[in-house]
């Protein structure tokens, strides 16, 4: 910054600082605009301090940025940006000019300012009655570092990385959500088929399973009589044949008895 002391704007209010800012924001109107704040943006960029100083061309916006960063003060200090209102106002909205405090002596501040005396970049000694406030870059830096520290503690527990143990077992898929969903669907289908079979009367018990005991089948139990003919279960083979023979005989035709007339002599 001090190496630029004595710089003077060119004809048409052209400055290299305005040209740099115009190229940075892709707007040619800044090439011949008032350049007090654009010089500070250029110097901060060259020194790698843009995050703490800011890059602005309009001084009220620059002051508002410091206020938002909680880096606004009424007390001067070396390295602070000093904002002036030549009408003596105390609101950032009326700010006209900005410079950098080089040192403080009593009630006076020694500054480095651009676009002073209309064309120069030079040192100035100022009273503080026209000062609106000071933007403190060191406070911006401190706030940023504190915010980064807070963000770093938002997730204090970090899950350990999963170790790779080669190829997994095929049975690992059984515990996956798709496998569980497929099992639920299969169970639903089986239960619905069993309920439907019972309603239609087609439900059957499981057949005799060979691994339960005798492979020839379950032992024969007593014959259960039919509810329509409770004595059917007690008949033997001879009864069955008798019934079959009785059923095969031809029934005799029945004759209607002749009715006698009254006083019929026969």
TrEMBL record:
Comp. bias (Basic residues): 257-266
Upper lineage: Bacteria, Bacillati, Actinomycetota, Actinomycetes, Streptosporangiales
Transmembrane segments: 179-197
Feature: compositional bias, Pro residues: 216-228
Membrane found in the keyword field: yes
UniProt KW keywords: Membrane, Transmembrane, Transmembrane helix
Segments for region (Disordered): 152-172, 205-266
Listed InterPro entries: CHAP_dom (IPR007921), Papain-like_cys_pep_sf (IPR038765)
Residue intervals of the Peptidase C51 domain: 30-115
Protein name, entry field: Peptidase C51 domain-containing protein
